[in-house]
Amino acid sequence: MLRNYSNSRTLGDNIRLGTLTAFTAGTINIASLLIFLSFTSNVTGHYAIFAAEISKGNWSQVAVVGLWIFLFFFGGFVSNFIVITFNKKSKYFAHSMPLVLEIMCLLLVGIYGQFYYRKTLEETEYLVALMLFATGLQNGLTASISNFSVKTTHLTGTTTDLGILFSMFTQKKFRKNGELVARAKLLLSIMLAYVIGAVFSGLTYFYLEFRVFYIISLCLLVVIGYDAYKIHIRHFKTRYRYSKIYNKPNAIAYLYDKIHGIPEVKPQVKERREKKRTLIFED
Fold first, then answer.
1. Do residues 44 and 132 touch, judged by C-beta distance below 8 A?
2. What is the DSSP string of 75-144?
């Protein structure tokens, strides 16, 4: 889900990433609506409130809502900055770090809300700001690594695109276009996952309250852990040694060799390798 980048991603990569992150976005949005009476997975409504408060001259609220909008923007900025800065060194690290930051933000909201929240306006404004930054991180990451194909924190563009696609599917030539069909599958999976997450949050909030943010964090850990499994655990079970894969010694390579033993090289293979290593002038 996280390793592949831009055009190298498959439809399956995008659907897995889109459904899991859309589920968490829907859960976050409804939880914040029930707790704080504010949406936190998008800023469309906040722009309207921002303009309304300017027209009223309510500058304290203009500053608060302006900060909320900026933090959503800043989350996307930070997410993509991490991706483009560390992508060459480690795609997995670059693509998982924004989710790690999001998990930290959501855990902070959950812990503070469960043990310290006294329902004051100031506390609410700070917690909403933190959640907007977290969803900005998520939206920035999914859009960045998928070449803007996956955006999961709001459904305005998704619904518009689906309307356009379904109108195209009224004609047979477009129904046979694999790229358009794949795009429709991706958007429908994102929409369905978002709605399921929202319903789940609405049904469980009265039992879980702020603990719902722990479940959201667990879902994001599944996204991170899936690629960790693909990179480490799956390859560990193969016949190839880690020192061969990474071309350098590490703890997993050492452990693999201890369990499976270092494979013996046949004399014929060893002889061929030695011939390849022989320099021309040595002949």
1. no
2. HHHHHHHHHHHHTTT-HHHHHHHHHHHHHHHHHHHHHHHHHT----HHHHHHHHHHHHHHHHHHHHHHHH
Cα–Cα distance for residue pair 84/97, rounded to 1 Å: 12
Q: What is the DSSP secondary-structure string of 171-197?
A: SHHHHT-HHHHHHHHHHHHHHHHHHHH
pLDDT band at 239 (very low <50, low <70, confident <90, very high): very low
The rounded distance, in Å, linking the Cα atoms of 182 and 197 is 23
User: For residue range 17-63, what is the model confidence (pLDDT) as tens digits?
Assistant: 889 889 999 999 999 999 998 889 889 889 999 999 999 999 999 99
In order of 93, 138, 197, the CA distances from 141 in angstroms are 12, 5, 19
Closest to 195 measured CA to CA, from 162, 152, 148: 152
Q: Encoding tokens for residue 100?
A: 């790690």
Q: How far apart are CA 215 and CA 77, in angstroms?
A: 26
Average pLDDT on 238-243 reads 48
Q: pTM of the prediction?
A: 0.78
The closest of 224, 242, 252, 247 to 3, measured between CA atoms, is 224
Are 211 and 114 contacting, i.e. CB atoms less than 8 angstroms apart? yes
Check residues 216 and 247 and name the one with the higher pLDDT: 216
Residue 256 makes CB contacts below 8 A (sequence gap 6+) with: 236, 241, 242
Per-residue pLDDT of 138-180, as tens digits, reads 999 888 888 777 788 888 888 999 999 999 999 988 989 988 9
Is the separation of the CB atoms in 143 and 153 below 8 Å? no
Report d(CA 132, CA 102) in Å as an integer. 10
